[in-house]
Amino acid sequence: MLITCPYCGPRDVSEYTYQGDGNRTRPDPASTDQEVWNAYVYDRLNPAGEHHEIWQHSGGCRAHLAVTRNTLTHVVSSVSFARDAGHKKSDSRRKTGAKA
Amino acid sequence: MSPRRAISGGRIDRLRTIRFTFDGRPFTGHAGDTLASALLANGVTLFARSFKYHRPRGVLTAGIDEPNALVTVLSGAVREPNIPATMLEIYDGLNVASQNRFPSLAYDVGALNQLGSKVLGAGFYYKTFMGPVIGPLKGTRFWMFCEWFIRRAAGLGSAGLEKDPSRYERMNAFCDVLVVGSGPAGLIAAKAASDSGARVMLAELDATPGGSANWSGETIDGLPAAEWAAETLRDLKARENVRVLPRTTVWGYYDGNTLSAVERVADHRNTPAKGEPRHRHWTIRTQSVVLATGAFERPLVFPGNDRPGVMLAGAALRYVNQYGVLPGQKIAIFTNNDSAYHTAEALKKAGAEIVAMVDVRDDTSVAGREIAREVGGEYLAGHAVVATEGGAQVSGIKVQRINAATGALSGDPRSIHADCLLVSGGWSPTIHLASQAGLKPEWDNDLQAFLPPKPTQNWVGAGAFNGSFSTEKAISEGHAAGLTAAGATDGKADELPSVDADAFDPNPAPVFEIKAKGKAFVDLQHDVTADDVRLAHREGFVSVEHLKRYTTLGMATDQGKTSNIPGLAIMAETLGKPIPDVGTTRFRAPFAPVSVGSLAGERYGDIRPERLTPMYDWHVENGAEFYAAGLWHRPMIYGLSGESVEQAYVRETKAVRGGVGLVDVSTLGKIAVQGPDAGAFLDRVYTNMFSTLAIGKARYGLMLREDGFVLDDGTTWRLGEHDFLMTTTTANAGKVMQHLEYLLDVVWPELKVQLTSVTDQWAGAAISGPKSRDVLAACVTGTKVDNDALPFMGIVYGEIDGAPVMICRLSFSGELAYEVYSGAGHGTHVWQALIKAGEPFAIVPYGLEALGTMRIEKGHVTGAEIDGRTTARDLHLDWMLSKKKPFIGSAMMDREGLVAEDRLQLVGIVSLDNRPLNGGAHIVEELDEANPHGSLGHLTAACYSPSLGKYIGLALVKGGKARQGTRAFISDPLRKRFGPVEIVSHHFFDPEGSRMHG
Q1: Is B746 within 8 Å of A64 when comparing Cβ atoms?
Q2: Left if phi > 0, otherwise alpha if psi is -120 to 50, otherwise beta: which for B652?
Q3: Cβ count within 10 A of residue A69
Q4: SS3 per residue for B671-692
């Protein structure tokens, strides 16, 4: 599996670290709604198909990347810097997590 | 002259004689021979004993699908077992042993297993060793008693115990088109792709590329096919955009058109050439793939089908045409299709006598009948072989009339004398790689075979792989596939080479098994019979996946290359379903066995990198003993001669508490946190405030994870308005860095903060003890170090012997102490200057043991307590949880389970029997040495405390805060250490901290 880092170019997956589901949005830090926090900390989407993920190019430029990957075929259809990407929003997100 | 070598013909070099040894007997062969062809030429037919029943076995195939003729290659004390003799090229000095026999191949006591074959059927192990057996040998004990004998009796070759001296290497390659298989289809595909400008790799698992052209005996472009192939290969090799890899098995097809292959670089030589590895592993990334992997011939299943002398007809064609070897003198042929007729012709031409052509079909073709008449011998259409005769070698066959549609036998069996029986049960395309990169294989009723599935990756097939069995079609399909794979379209079909070959109908009669009395083998390598398959069905195994596992059909080293389809057909018949409804098991990687050495390449032994601090050499020269802390090598003690570890750390600890000591703390993780929002960022990641920290001051900080558990602790120093230096524990440096990077990149990209790991840029020396200030005063210039200039948690800049240093007054030992940081390159210089300045004060260097002892006495936590399961409250650090601001973990840390009173909490433990304690020992309320139970928690660290004169430790104990002052026991059954202890506060020593503030 290759991921094309926008900074370093196409690199083998062994240079990257998986940093989890990219559909999550951290709740308002002042929020005390435990359900919202539970969803953020513990709930992960696990789709069979296209998935928005965060990968870090830990063996390269160390940037976090927003990666769209098909979990069935490992085809990576888009990569961008997580800093720039609108990676936080997803309609498929469960209600509890989307609230904040 | 070897008894079975034809007078002429074959692609071997008859002028070069090769000498080798099989089971201690010397033999000769020719360059170009495999072990199988050379032994067959010498009249050897007995190659091996079978897996379970120790039946004599010969050679069935001429290639990688060989189930029977597995051998062990010996080279000094090194043994390489289970090598197919059909794949082993002979060389001078080759030394080979047969397998699974005792005392010899011809006289094997294990053959007695055949007498018990009634009970050794499918599921023997499952059935035999479950139930209770009466008496002392019951249950598992009986199983273990028998296991030794059974394991000796069943099996293939055994690996040696010697270290493999061979060198292996790994290679990455990139190309536009990878062609797998170099038969006519593959050769033409490679040529077409190369003509279109693509970068091409051509992989062939045999030594000589050419595939079927090497043995078909056909004519291509007016040349013998083998010569045409050799010429085409020369052309390809001369091209700059083509790389040909012979002896290379492509064994796996992975995501992103990444294929794995292993090249047997030097297995055909006595010793590898200079610089040559034994095997080379290839990871090939390609735009597209041409699969031209050909087809495997299937045997027919009938009683006695495993007797040496029974061989596949296609293999015989290869032996005679490629190696000039006749598999027998009086040959019978048994077939359900036309391909075997071609073999009959070739054998007749090479001088063998064809005694009988047995064809299950009544209505054979005109061309077939014509060939049968030409080759002579009996022609028995509508007949089947129902048995073979002979001992360890075929001496005859029995035939009977068969109805090919119903499989019913009729009439009386009749014997025919023959010393060899060639069998063909039709052909199965080699779709293994396609199956790894495609959907489900598709059954073709005419060919009675699975055709390649629809691709899920970028590959295209050609030739026999597609079920196109004529060379003419292979060439046209190969050409088209090469162009498609290269993304070109302008190839001209009329340029293709012409083929002169007998036309034949590839479709077999749907006959897989001849049902007559006797053992009929489906999987020869695992000794699975047709009756085993039916037995499995009777016992309720309906799914093909279950059948495979229960009978072990297709699970041997050959992965059922010759047995899968016949096994499936028998299963289908038993179930009363058509074959495609039963389905096939999925082919998984590897296609053929892969040497573990080639996967490891150069990565063997201890390949962890070593991290050494700048002062490492000084530690070595001054008698330090080290231990590994992650990748770091840190001094444990600086032992004097004759000192035990305990004596050394007690001496070092006393020296520090009574005077002054120096310890290397360069391994602490150090992260520069810089930028206008650095203070705000630290407020969010630490539980306490950092934005309010004055420049030139340090503060102890605690970090939680999002889920509220403790992540790490350490001090962070404010060096400037926008400039902080964070320190982390040695073990968590990487984890904390990644945590912070994630937060800045993903959660708060709006914060203007830059992180830089500076662990390796700084050397750190901690000087501790009541006299530490005196030592600094004696050697530091450019700054004062008294209590006003350098108060607790203060930072100053100065020089030590000309080297710039940054000094922070903080304490891990509980003593007056300072951390002296210098550039890594100055580390040893500064360290030595400190030692020199300390000499009048009797300074000692101290190691991790003394450091650990002092931190236990002070009740400071480290990685042993911050184990990912403890909260700030568990560790008495709740005073650090700010209530003025949210921080990472603040929302989750007050959950019910995290504030419960009976959680494991940090306590101190004192040994009451004055004996040492061990980390990991359990704390219990009541001692029960015979049946240890009731753990309240465990010791995380232990030492002898010179300050208290006792053995003490830290522990995480259930409801520990409430247990302080009570008695308990330690229970350590593994180390047989039991004894009374007292649970106390974790602050053993100077709880007010008066010493470090002094």
Answers
A1: yes
A2: alpha
A3: 22
A4: EEEECCCHHHHHHHHECCCCCC
Going along chain B from its start, the domains and CATH numbers come out as 1-164 (3.10.20.440), 168-295+429-500 (3.50.50.60), 317-425 (3.50.50.60), 509-598 (1.10.10.1100), 620-667+761-860 (3.30.1360.120), 669-757 (3.30.70.1400), 901-998 (2.40.30.110)
Q: How many CB pairs under 8 A join A and B?
A: 56
Q: Which residues of B touch A40 (CB under 8 A)?
A: 706
Q: What are phi and psi of B521, to 5 degrees?
A: -90, 135
Instruction: Select from A7, A15, A41, A75 the residue whose CB has the most chain B CBs within 10 Å, as the one to mutate to test that interface.
Output: A41
Chain centre distance of CA B546: 25
Whether pLDDT at B560 is above 50 = yes
B706, B746, B895, B899, best to mutate vs chain A, most A CBs in 10 Å? B746
Amino acid making up residue B32: G
pLDDT by residue (tens digit) across B22-46? 999 999 999 999 999 999 999 999 9
Nearest CA in chain B to A22: B746
Q: Is the peptide bond before B932 cis (omega within 30 degrees of 0)?
A: no
Q: Are A10 and A1 in contact (CB under 8 A)?
A: no
Instruction: Name the phi and psi angles at B347, rounded to 5.
Output: -70, -40
B258 → chain A, closest CA residue: A1
Place of tokens 């001692």: B927
What is the dihedral sign for C-alpha B981, B983, B987, B991?
negative
Q: Hey, are the CB atoms on A26 and B747 less than 8 Å from each other?
A: yes
Choose among B212, B801, B105: nearest CA to B465.
B212
The minimal CB distance from A41 to the residues B256, B707, B890 is found for: B707
Choose the mutation target among A1, A13, A24, A26 for the interface with B, i.e. most B CBs under 10 Å. Answer: A26
Token representation of residue B756: 């830089």
Q: How far is A32 from chain B (nearest CA, A)?
A: 6
| A54: enclosing H helix or E strand | strand A50-56
Q: Hey, what are B290's tokens?
A: 């041409």
Taking only the tens place, the pLDDT of each residue in B801-811 is 999 999 999 99
Residue B382 carries which side chain, given as an amino acid letter?
Answer: G
Element spanning B720, H or E: strand B710-720
Residues whose CB falls within 8 Å of the CB of residue B218, separated by 6 or more in sequence, listed in order: B225, B471, B499, B500, B501
d(CA B612, CA A2): 33
Question: CB A63 to CB B745 under 8 A?
Answer: yes
Rg of chain B in Å (alpha carbons): 39
* Cβ-Cβ contacts under 8 Å, A2 against chain B: 256, 285
> For chain B, what percent of residues have pLDDT higher than 90?
84
User: What is the average pLDDT value for chain B, to the nearest integer?
Assistant: 93
- Is the distance from CB of B154 to CB of B111 less than 8 angstroms? no
Task: Spell out the residues 6+ positions from residue B748 whose beta carbon is closer than 8 angstroms to its own.
Answer: B681, B684
The verdict on domain A2-98 having CATH code 1.10.620.20 is: no
pTM, 2 dp: 0.86
Residues B687, B882 contacting (CB under 8 angstroms):
yes
| pLDDT tens, residue by residue, B217-257 | 999 999 999 999 999 999 999 999 999 999 999 999 999 89
Q: Is B90 exposed, middle or buried (0-12, 13-18, 19+ CB in 10 A)?
A: buried
Q: Which of B738, B891, B892 is closest, CB to CB, to A56?
A: B738
Q: How far apart are CA B167 and CA B41, in angstroms?
A: 33
CB of A73 within 8 Å of a chain B CB? The answer is yes
C-beta atoms of A82 and B738 within 8 A: no
- In three-state secondary structure terms, B141 is helix
By the CB < 8 Å criterion, does A100 face chain B? no
Whether residue B501 contacts residue B470, with contact meaning beta carbons closer than 8 Å, is answered with: yes
